[in-house]
Amino acid sequence: MDRRPSLDPAVAEIRRAVRGALAEVSGPVLVGLSGGADSLALASAVAFEAPKAGVEAHAVVIDHGLQEGSDTVARRAAERAGAMGLRARVVRIEVPPPAEGGGPEAVARDGRRAALIADAKATGAEAILLAHTLDDQAETVLIGLARGSGAASLGAMSPERVEEGIRILRPLLGARRATTRAACRAEGLPVWEDPHNLDRRFLRVRVRQDVMPVLEAELGPGVAEALARTSDQLREDAEAFADMIDETIEDIVEHAEAGIAVSVAALAANPPALRHRIIRHVVASEFGVSLTRAQTLEVARLVTDWRGQGPIDLPGCRAQRAGTRLVISAA
């Protein structure tokens, strides 16, 4: 009796993850494809699973034009997607120079995300599938820890979020980078090696090449998984606080001249974690400014330790105590 050849475990793992994601959608989906191992493994699994799920799927390759020959790389990635059975197209974007204090990685990422969302809207896609892995998640958490980021940032990447009405799905957040590479080898997929992934000018590359291996060697295996679990827990906490803020803020906030006012008594009655989040939320919502930890604590002192001190100047706005209200107004 003939037996079917056994399915490679890595291919099976990626397909299971994609199958779960596609079970949650009903409309067309886009796969963000670069030609690297992660996105190739994702595209291959989508090409296999989407027809069975009755979901229309396409692949989109974003060409940033940041490297010589990027148009050739993008074209080949699209051709590979086509060979898998996915309709694929290349979208060329212009990436502006990074703002002061920013980096090319962030600018390219923002440009890529905007282009994918625009393409999804234009084609009527319900969701965009991205190929971030557990290793990407762990690196993001570690970088956030080093920068002293808050719980919301340490929550890192969510398996699902909605941006501009488009669902962003990351079905491979539970898979290791080694698994996507093994899946590509098993399926004979030629992988493009992005030179930027070896460029030590980028912090993420140094974390990947130097920091994570040292942590694994000194602390034992499982560091990446532990960091990913930490992000899951912090993301749950952040979502819970967001719900509490939404429930609380309507009762304690009112409009003021050129700004917004918050009840001092209500803020003081809340625990510090919620009080600080309300302050940051109000400033971000009204003025589009993200306060640092130090700035947030200074504003909170106007509530819990007010001794007649004057206004506090913040980026784009000013906070001051006015009787029983904390008033935050345009600078």
The major sheet is characterized as:
6 strands, mixed
Just give the CATH class of the largest domain.
Alpha Beta
Overall mean pLDDT? 90
Low-confidence stretches: none
State the helix count: 12
CATH fold call of the largest domain? Rossmann fold
The 3D shape can be described as: elongated
Please trace the helix and strand order, writing H or E for each element. HEHEHEHEHHEEHHHEEHHHEEE
CATH architecture of the largest domain: 3-Layer(aba) Sandwich
The secondary structure category is alpha/beta
**Terminal residue distance:** 80 Å
Subcellular location: Cytoplasm
EC number: 6.3.4.19
Main location: cytoplasm
Keywords: ATP-binding, Cytoplasm, Ligase, Nucleotide-binding, tRNA processing
List key phrases describing it.
331 residues; tRNA(Ile)-lysidine synthase activity; ATP-binding; 12 helices; tRNA_Ile_lys_synt_subst-bd; tRNA(Ile)-lysidine synthase; 5-stranded antiparallel sheet; 6-stranded mixed sheet; tRNA_Ile_lys_synt; Rossmann fold; alpha/beta; Uridine Diphospho-n-acetylenolpyruvylglucosamine Reductase, domain 3
